[in-house]
Design a protein that fits this description.
By secondary structure, this protein is α+β, with helices and mostly antiparallel strands. 22% of the residues lie in helices and 31% in strands. The protein contains 29 helices and 50 strands. It comes from Podila minutissima.
């Protein structure tokens, strides 16, 4: 026998062989084995840990495969392999598994400090019941000294194999799980949501809202029985919630995002959870009005917050109470959630230069020391806490992600942050005790990452991770500790880590909680009350049942379709009607398409084909069509009569092409009999026995520039090419003796002449090849045809049809009824000017008065105009990818009929300008065509005749563009070349109060954002800061400037952005903006949902919108 073991399993877990170290250990040292070799994995509970030894006294006497007490060995040819196999019974438990960490060692029997070792951890299952190392040790080195010890592992056939095993409990059921064939519903009772590309942020929030049962019930109460599924947000959300409760598989959200008005691109853009939550709730709140669900969102998520300024030495307080739907809490500088709340209500003392200007209540206007801050007057039953992981870094002038450690508890009492008053007294001593219900996690950095949700669906239930379409149970440590953030390690510890451990640590550092959901203990039973079938609208059940029935019907159709396949049948008729490359054109002459049952016999199929063409069955021969390597389609071989009783499924397997789903066949129809070698008559010649091949013949007429198929011939391979000329003349009806030329059609741009005296074999003609013939022209005939713009030879015509393309010229301005759509046949090699000349003939205009614009797809919207160039060809003007081997296909180009020459036009630039009226809501867009050398002064001069200035206005104009929420103003002398194309240009009449403001009145820039200043939107503006004006009056001026409706404006929150500290300072109604000691760079921020669809944010992120 050989000194080796049989290999039965390959190792897939990378391990390293550990060399001898200076401090030697013995394999008999159980403590060293269990504490150092297989050290306990933190946070996993050990079920048991033991070491085992197998004393092998005669290595060479072993069989090829042997089993020890708890493990077995096998190997490849040059290696021994040692495996660990679980001894637990698993026959009756298909889901049986054991999670074990183990090390396997082979050692010298007399010196246990000489050993080789491998370690791993594994989830032992019925599918992977043993695990180990196929390359445990080189079999050729067993008898040689190991390392520096001078002692071999095997001494006179004697060795010891030791196993140290630590078995762990698996409380979540997914420890070291491969997740192959994992079933979320079966393992957890819940299902996930499919990710459309970058919708993980949406999925995490939807799962959180779904398990807020009170909210789910309210959504079901919205009347949607008359709604259209693709346009109703409420109906689409009802559908998602219902499917999450009833489906066995992950649920799609495509219809939901379609109801938002999103396209596929929007689904590949990641957004912020908080912004999405605000926009979604705002939309649903409108849908709930006047229904049984009205007020549900207010009841669940809305609390009250008071901003105040209280004088220290005078009994006077200025305050403003407003609603909030979520709370944004600082992470930076706060170690715990309680610290963040304390920071939120932190009181600022206004003294010294910052003294508060108090007035009213009988007080004279004077400066007083005061305390400024915010306090909660009431907290909602469900708290959505947004942890500010993304902040503006003033030093970097960029947004950054804050990965600092920030701890949050399972339970928290927030009573200390609520103002004393009626609300607090009614709540009682435990009225502000909250329990953690959900953690929404972001893993990644500022530029991208992944969201998932950790949720506890039931009050006393387990925690689960909802990660798109996968749901798994998690431990409390995974909910809390692993999402606190931080995780910085010292350089020394980092240096000692393996690459895998460094990558794991880096991943953990960028994975942290982003949004927390707490539910008030007193309201938890009501909020998490399970829904029943009575809570589901009947119309929704009916609609979904109908859809389920339709899907089942389609499923049955698909199952039935597996019993059929398609056959594309081509005949002489299609060949003769074809005037281009190959045997036929699948676009213009596709032949017959037949649906064939797989079990149908070839004989029955041939009978169906014969009947469809009206020919006797014995006059038909069926040939297979194949796609050759040069991308041409030719006949290959006939299907013999011996296969008449063979099923079509087998025929397709034997004669078809695996790369093609459909089978393509050519039907040869013979009109005369041929003699076979045995003297019997047959409709067809037997190619394999007679040495004949079937070739196809085309004729090119240079006088009419037409190419046509004339039929086929059976020729001897050894016969000369010229011998078929009389048959060709006869087929075409040409006089006998007419001089002709012959060509072989090899591929579209390879049409080679054939020598008459060469044999078909010498010309490398195969069965199915195409031969083209034409008259042999005199030099005079050639010259005359060239003068007429015709093509004297077949190769020239093939080059023409290869470049031939049918182009549809469509008016760019579809509202201009004087312009028509024209279809022209052109060559892709035509120049820009040649194309323009062809269209100009139809339009009866000067070719230089036409401008072209390419279309991105057939029927798509126009793109940028095509710039005229004498070197530009039509093939560069049309959108690629819509032609078939040079055949005539439809392409689209938009055109405009100009009032000026294209040469003059291309020296101009189109400037898009938005005129802003008395309110920013009054917008009117304009397009100005100006010389590229123009200035802003020219822009204004051309714009003024198109707009109307205010009768009593300043007549002073401001021109600006917007980027990152900031205005960039232009002077009248600035060239338009300084305006970047992506930026919109705005022109407004400077308001009267700004134009006439005094030196004591500051002018502050104002910007719009949603939740965080990284999410800017809408058009910024400027505001005059008036002395002694309370912010209530300031808001009235802002309201008038914006032109917003009262409902939307009431939801706007105002903050002051302090440029020196990069902090956002809330502003109350009684505050006086002029008292804030404004500095250059400070700005007033308006926090509200973006309904403009105009994003001005940092980076490329698009503002979220949901169709109303």
């Amino acid at each position: 026998m050989e000194d080796q073991l049989e290999t039965t399993l390959e190792r897939t877990v990378p391990v390293e062989e550990k060399p001898l170290v200076e401090e030697q250990h013995s394999v008999q040292d159980a403590q060293w084995l269990t504490e150092k070799v297989i050290p306990p994995v933190p946070d996993l509970e050990t079920r048991g840990c033991e070491t085992f030894q197998w004393d092998i006294t005669d290595w060479k006497a072993l069989d090829k495969r042997v089993t020890g007490p708890e493990f077995e060995g096998n190997n490849d040819r040059d290696q021994i392999a040692v495996y660990l196999d679980s001894a637990e019974s698993r026959e009756q438990e298909p889901k049986w598994h054991v999670c074990a960490q183990f090390a396997l060692l082979m050692s010298n029997p007399h010196n246990p400090t000489v050993y080789t070792m491998h370690a791993a951890n594994h989830r032992f299952t019925t599918e992977e019941a043993d695990w180990g190392f196929t390359r445990f040790h080189d079999i050729r080195r067993l008898d040689t000294p190991h390392g520096q010890s001078g002692v071999p592992l095997i001494d006179n056939g004697h060795t010891v194999i030791t196993a140290a095993v630590r078995v762990y409990d698996d409380p979540t059921g997914v420890l070291w799980h491969s997740f192959l064939n994992y079933d979320s519903k079966e393992m957890t009772g819940f299902v996930g949501l499919k990710n459309q590309g970058a919708t993980c942020y949406m999925n995490s929030l939807l799962q959180s809202l779904y398990f807020t049962n009170f909210f789910r019930k309210a959504v079901f109460e919205i009347p949607t029985d008359e709604d259209e599924p693709s346009r109703s947000v409420a109906l689409a959300l009802q559908r998602v919630f219902y499917q999450l409760a009833t489906s066995s598989n992950s649920v799609g959200t495509t219809e939901l995002t379609r109801s938002f008005g999103w396209n596929s691109l929007d689904s590949f853009m990641q957004h912020d959870v908080q912004e999405f939550n605000r926009v979604l709730q705002d939309n649903l709140e409108g849908k709930m009005k006047g229904t049984a669900a009205e007020g549900a969102i207010q009841k669940l998520f809305v609390g009250k917050m008071k901003s105040y300024i209280k004088c220290i030495d005078v009994d006077y307080e200025s305050s403003r109470v407003e609603n909030f739907y979520d709370i944004q809490l600082n992470v930076k500088g706060c170690k715990t959630l309680r610290d963040s709340f304390a920071n939120y209500i932190d009181v600022e003392t206004l003294d010294g230069e910052n003294k508060y200007q108090a007035e009213g209540h009988g007080l004279q206007v004077r400066l007083e020391d005061a305390r400024k801050g915010v306090i909660f007057e009431s907290l909602p039953p469900v708290l959505h806490l947004q942890l500010k992981r993304f902040e503006y870094d003033i030093e970097r002038d960029a947004m950054v992600k804050i990965n600092d450690r920030h701890e949050f508890p399972l339970e928290i009492d927030l009573a200390e942050f609520v103002a004393e008053g009626e609300e607090k007294r009614k709540a009682g001593p435990h009225g502000f005790n909250y329990t953690l219900h959900g953690v929404l996690v972001h893993s990644g950095d500022l530029h991208g990452g992944h969201y998932f949700a950790l949720l506890k669906p039931q009050r006393d239930g387990k925690w689960f991770r909802f990660d798109d379409d996968r749901v798994t149970q998690v431990t409390l440590k995974e909910v809390l500790n692993e999402n606190y953030g931080g995780g910085d390690i010292s350089p020394e510890n980092l240096a000692s880590m393996s690459l895998a451990m460094r990558q794991l640590n880096r991943h953990k550092r960028f994975t942290n909680a982003y949004m927390l959901v707490y539910i008030r203990n007193n309201d938890m039973d009501e909020i998490l009350k399970p829904l029943t079938t009575d809570d589901i609208p009947e119309h929704l059940l009916r609609r979904l049942d109908d859809e389920k029935a339709a899907m089942e019907s389609k499923r049955k159709e698909r199952e039935e379709s597996t019993q059929f396949f398609n056959v594309n049948v081509i005949s002489d008729i299609d060949f003769k009607a074809h005037s281009g490359f190959d045997l036929y054109n699948p676009m213009t002459h596709p032949g017959k398409h037949l649906k064939v049952r797989k079990q149908e016999t070839f004989g029955a199929f041939r009978g169906v084909v014969a009947n469809s063409y009206g020919y006797p069955e014995d006059q038909l021969s069926v040939w297979t069509l194949v796609k050759r390597q040069n991308d041409t389609v030719r006949t290959d071989s006939p299907i013999p009569d011996t296969e008449l009783n063979t099923s079509m499924e087998v025929i397709k397997e034997k004669f078809g092409t695996r790369s093609q789903a459909d089978m393509r066949l050519f039907i040869e129809v013979s009109d005369k009999t041929a003699k076979t070698p045995n003297g019997k008559s047959s409709w067809f010649q037997n190619d394999s026995q007679s040495g004949t091949i079937m070739i196809f013949i085309k004729y090119y007429d240079p006088f009419t520039s037409t190419l046509e198929g004339v039929g086929k011939l059976h020729v001897q391979k050894q016969s000369k090419v010229g011998e078929i000329v009389p048959q060709l003349l006869e087929k075409k009806g040409l006089p006998s003796g007419t001089a002709v030329k012959l060509f072989e059609e090899i591929k579209p741009m390879m049409i080679e002449p054939m020598k008459m005296k060469s044999t078909f074999h010498h010309c490398e003609i195969q069965g199915g090849d195409i031969v083209v013939f034409q008259k042999d022209l005199t030099p005079k005939e050639v010259a005359e045809l060239q003068q007429q713009g015709l093509r004297p030879s077949a190769p020239q015509h093939y080059e023409y049809i290869f470049n031939r393309v049918v182009v549809e010229f469509k008016p760019k301005n579809e509202e201009d009824t004087t312009l028509k759509t024209y279809t022209l046949e052109l060559s892709r090699k035509n120049s820009y000017d040649q194309v323009a000349s062809k269209l100009a003939e139809k339009l009866e205009t000067d070719p230089l008065h036409i401008q072209f614009t390419a279309a991105p797809t057939p029927g798509g919207q126009p793109r940028m105009p095509i710039r005229r160039s004498t070197n530009l060809l039509l093939q560069d003007m049309i959108s690629p990818g819509y032609s078939y081997q040079g055949q005539s296909t439809l392409n689209l180009i938009y055109y405009e009929k100009l009032d000026m020459s294209i040469v003059e036009l291309e020296n101009k630039r189109l400037i898009k300008v938005t005129w802003l009226g008395p309110t920013l809501k009054d917008e009117s867009p304009h397009e100005l065509l100006l010389a590229k050398t123009s200035s802003i002064e020219t822009v204004i001069a051309n714009l003024l005749p198109k707009v109307k200035l205010s009768p009593n206005g300043t007549k002073k104009l401001r021109t600006f563009s917007v980027y990152n929420g900031k205005m960039k103003e232009y002077g009248i002398g600035d060239p338009i070349s300084s305006i970047h194309d992506p930026f919109s240009l705005y022109v407004e009449e400077i308001p009267l109060d700004e134009h006439e403001h005094t030196e004591l009145e500051a002018v502050i820039p104002c910007f719009h954002f949603t939740g965080d200043i990284s999410r800017m939107h809408s058009i910024p503006f400027k505001l005059v800061v008036k002395e002694n004006e309370t912010f209530t009056d300031t808001k009235n001026r802002i309201h008038a400037r914006l032109g917003m409706n009262d409902k939307d404006f009431a939801k706007v929150k105002f903050v002051l952005f302090n440029s020196s500290s990069a902090k956002l300072i809330p502003i109350g109604d009684d505050d006086i903006l002029a008292n804030f000691n404004l500095s250059p760079g400070d700005a007033l921020g308006l926090d509200h949902i973006d309904k403009s669809g105009r994003s001005n944010r940092l980076g490329a992120e698009k503002a979220i919108f949901i169709r109303g």
